[in-house]
Design goal:
The protein is mainly beta and about 280 residues long. It has a domain of about 190 residues. It is built from one helix and 18 strands. The strands form five sheets. It has a four-stranded mixed sheet, with no helix packed on it. Strands 3-4-5-6 form a four-stranded antiparallel sheet, with no helix packed on it.
């Protein structure tokens, strides 16, 4: 709030992120040349996360914001995940960011190993001369996109993570994002592989969260930032079922860096109807 004007970041799909002033003045462009979308404020109001396809497909970026000056002061990339990132939300304590990615369920293990496995499978698929797809179970397609053997999984990454040496230079109230030769490259399209510390919270051959027709994200973080609640359908035949259940698991209080298996609890197992966060 400044001079009676309320400022929030906003964007249309794949356009520069702007900060409109709710007092009649023109919107102020904060992040440009970035093919940006889905800005989300950090709890302290000093940063916001957003999606950009500028490098490595859809990845999460962080913009540092000066509330007093009302300007973005720096921008850096948060994620480097081969299967791309989306649906980012902040934990209420500001320590972690949770996001989703469509991954190959057989690629399991530590973050780097899982990322390398997914990158390898994507690379093999792009180079293969055979483009036919074989499906042995439902569901295999939503709208106009095939699942191609992938599952939607939820990941957590410490909010203080920085990828490579992504540089930012400020010009007035705007920030230009400059490419860095040290940045990880897209699978099959560069010399350096993806490297990630993002941890898969929902491994296995299930979609978590379930496919959404729009609206809410179908996952949420507890007020203390310690637990994640999400929707997932573990029925044997999910194509004939709407039994989406609510599941709870600990994020871990160490900035999401722990790699030990976590206990997952179904809190709506007795309800055969669809549950949502």
């Amino acid at each position: 709030m400044a001079s009676g004007c309320c400022s929030v970041p906003w964007t249309s799909t794949w356009r520069p992120i702007r900060r409109p002033r709710m007092c009649g003045s023109c919107p102020q462009r904060e992040v440009r040349n970035a093919r940006s979308d889905r800005p989300r404020w950090a709890p302290d109001g000093k940063r916001f996360a957003f999606l950009s396809t500028k490098e490595g497909g859809s990845q999460i970026w962080i913009a540092d914001f000066d509330p007093a000056a009302g300007t973005v002061t720096a921008v850096h990339r948060l994620t480097s995940i081969a299967t791309e990132a989306g649906g980012e939300i902040w934990s209420p304590d500001g320590k972690n960011i949770v996001f989703t990615s469509d991954v190959y369920p057989e690629c399991d293990g530590a973050p780097d190993a899982e990322t390398a496995c997914n990158a390898k499978k994507l690379d093999e698929g792009s180079k293969s001369k055979v483009k036919a797809l074989i499906f042995d179970h439902l569901l295999y397609r939503h709208w106009n996109a095939y699942k191609e053997g992938k599952r939607s999984h939820i990941f957590v990454i410490p909010a203080d993570t920085r990828v490579g040496a992504d540089a930012s230079s400020c010009q007035g109230s705007e920030v230009r994002q400059e490419s860095s030769s040290a940045s990880p490259s897209r699978a099959g399209g560069g010399t350096r592989p993806y490297v990630s510390i993002a941890r898969d919270l929902t491994p296995g051959d299930y979609d978590a969260p379930v496919f959404s027709l729009g609206g809410q994200d179908n996952y949420a973080i507890s007020p203390d930032g310690q637990e994640l609640c999400y929707t997932s359908n573990h029925d044997k035949n999910p194509a004939a079922s709407t039994n989406n259940d609510l599941w709870i698991l600990p994020i871990n209080g160490d900035g999401g860096r722990a790699s030990a298996p976590v206990a997952v609890k179904n809190i709506t197992a007795d309800n055969p109807a669809s549950d949502s966060t």
